């Protein structure tokens, strides 16, 4: 009888220990893997849009000269862990004239510098683009919605420079503002002045590690 009692006691002890062992297994499970890194078009608030490209179908936005981040091209950065990577195409701005091209007076040269800032005015980085115009094929694209032949606008992007900027983890918006413009055209020399276009931006993209979802 004593052996039977010991056996019953052992079984009872084992049954009591089972929930504890199961709880340990649950606590020892590995945490779920972090979300996969994402690459996607950025959400952009454009203060002055140029329009849509005929060839690229991209949206082109003027980058205006100024010092107030609220007046720039505002790019929203999704919640992210670690630094996100902001990438965009930077172009010069050219006003095309068929008459000047035919008359051999169309030569123009451009250089522009823009800054990428936080909304509190801290500089994260700069982008620069330089290009020349001699003939129509020098244009990067033409823009729909104009009164010119083929329904295109006279103003067009020229040149293309890929710009990459690292955005710290806690920054959820950045601003693109024009800093320097040095342009020489048939109309003379042009420099940056507040509120005026310095360059053109397109194809704004963001690469980031999504922040964990709060539960």
Give a written overview of the molecule:
It is a single chain. The protein is mainly β. It folds into two domains: 1-30; 35-210, Jelly Rolls. Helix content is 14%, strand content 48%. It contains two helices and twelve strands; from the N terminus they run αββββββαββββββ. The chain has helices at residues 2-27, 98-102; strands at 38-41, 43-45, 49-52, 59-64, 73-76, 80-95, 108-118, 123-133, 155-167, 173-185, 188-191, 197-210. The strands form two sheets. Strands 1, 3, 4, 6, 9 and 12 form a six-stranded antiparallel β-sheet that branches. Strands 2, 5, 7, 8, 10 and 11 form a six-stranded antiparallel β-sheet that branches. The longest helix is centred in the N-terminal third of the chain and has 26 residues, at 2-27.
Task: Please give a quick description of this structure.
The chain folds into 2 domains: 1-30; 35-210, Jelly Rolls, CATH 2.60.120.
Write the SSE topology.
Layout: H1 2-27, E1 38-41, E2 43-45, E3 49-52, E4 59-64, E5 73-76, E6 80-95, H2 98-102, E7 108-118, E8 123-133, E9 155-167, E10 173-185, E11 188-191, E12 197-210
Antiparallel strand pairs: 1-12, 2-5, 3-4, 4-12, 5-10, 6-9, 6-12, 7-8, 7-10, 10-11
Percent range for β-strand residues: over 45%
Number of domains: 2
Report the CATH C-level class of the largest domain. Mainly Beta
Roughly how many Å apart are the termini?
Answer: 55 Å
Largest sheet: 6 strands, antiparallel
Going by CATH, the architecture of the largest domain would be Sandwich
Average pLDDT for all residues:
89
H/E topology pattern: HEEEEEEHEEEEEE
Stretches where pLDDT falls below 50 for ≥5 residues?
A: none
The radius of gyration over CA amounts to: 29 Å
Number of helical segments? 2
**Helix fraction by DSSP (H/I, runs of at least 4):** 10-25%
């Amino acid at each position: 009888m004593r052996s039977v009692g010991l056996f019953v006691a052992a079984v009872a002890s084992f049954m009591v220990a089972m929930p504890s062992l199961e709880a340990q297994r649950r606590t020892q499970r590995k945490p779920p893997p972090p979300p996969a890194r994402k690459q996607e078009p950025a959400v952009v608030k454009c203060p002055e849009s140029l329009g849509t490209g005929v060839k690229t179908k991209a949206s082109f936005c003027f980058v205006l000269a100024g010092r107030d981040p609220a007046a720039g091209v505002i790019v929203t950065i999704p919640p992210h862990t670690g630094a996100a990577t902001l990438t965009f195409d930077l172009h010069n701005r050219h006003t095309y004239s068929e008459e000047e091209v035919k008359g051999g007076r169309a030569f123009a040269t451009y250089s522009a510098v823009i800054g990428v800032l936080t909304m509190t005015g801290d500089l994260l980085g700069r982008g620069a683009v330089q290009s020349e115009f001699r003939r129509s094929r020098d244009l990067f694209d033409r823009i729909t919605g104009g009164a010119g032949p083929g329904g295109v606008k006279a103003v067009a992007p020229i040149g293309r420079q890929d710009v990459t900027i690292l955005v710290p983890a806690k920054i959820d918006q950045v601003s693109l503002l024009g800093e320097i413009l040095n342009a020489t055209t048939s109309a003379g020399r042009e420099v940056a002045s507040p509120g005026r276009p310095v360059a053109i931006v397109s194809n704004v993209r963001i690469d980031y590690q999504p922040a964990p979802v709060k539960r």
